[in-house]
What we know:
- The protein is of the alpha/beta class.
- The chain folds into 2 domains: 5-204 and 289-318, Alpha-Beta Barrel (TIM Barrel), CATH 3.20.20.70; 215-282, no CATH class.
- It contains 14 helices and 13 strands.
- The chain has an 8-stranded parallel beta sheet.
- The longest helix has 17 residues, at 293-309.
Amino acid sequence: MFSNRITKLFSIEYPIIQAGMVWASGWKLAAAVSNAGGLGIIGAGSMYPEVLKKHIQQCKKATGKPFAVNLPLMYPDIDQHIAIIIEAQVPIVFTSAGNPKTFTPLLKSKGITVVHVVSSSLFAQKAVAAGVDAVVAEGFEAGGHNGREETTTFVLIPLVRKAINIPVIAAGGIATGRQMLAAMVLGADGVQIGSRFVCTPEASSHINFKQKIIAAKEGDTVLSLKKHIPVRLLKNPFYQQIHEAEMNGADAATLQQLLGKGRAKKGMFEGDMEEGELEIGQVSALIDDIKPAADIVHEIWNEFNVALQQPLVFSDNII
């Protein structure tokens, strides 16, 4: 039985965490990952309060194992979400996109384990000062909203590991067991994986989006909207509009107007591959099939263990 700081903190079998992605991470995906031995996360960023409440209730019915809720702190109904999470006794909360000091003390006073997503060692230190139990260090490769620092995962993880002593979860560009091993060698205690879990039957994202991810090649995602809120997007006609506006010097207000409302839902949930916003990571280039979430968890864990036992090979020399 594998055991480390992350498996102990979350009471899970494997240090594999499924990211709480908007329009993809509902109760079905979260429960499937938790039942397989990882930590499933409900992505609250695309949910109204009553919708979140129903997803938590359904997840509790579908699994007796720990699960979490991902909570973007910039969400307009954040106070209602916090109240629902506390009332439902959700055991773990991942916060992102905001100041961890705002709600960490309240959540921890209710016995909830709190993890905050960071994009730099400085933000990691601020999260520790806020009292979080662990951090997710998310590199430039990640899909969705991203850090302005553009630090890659392989640089970020050792920087964060050096800066703090609490558990570190690596995120960004991880979809395989070998990548998981590499992240842990660099100092991570576990990994958070998003893009790979979008391509599952349990993910609530549209099949058109899943097929678009499978077809993605190297260079098909770009970090965009840097003047507004940086987000990694798959190239499509909507992305092209954004790109042309940025090339022409559009300011944050203009980009916000172009982005409008409901673009992410239109693309990822409703399946409009032309006018929708398609958030996904660089690792989409490695994804070539749709398979059950449990199969992905076990595949990653098995590959991790095989890679862990293999000798290092440098050209013709074996160490």
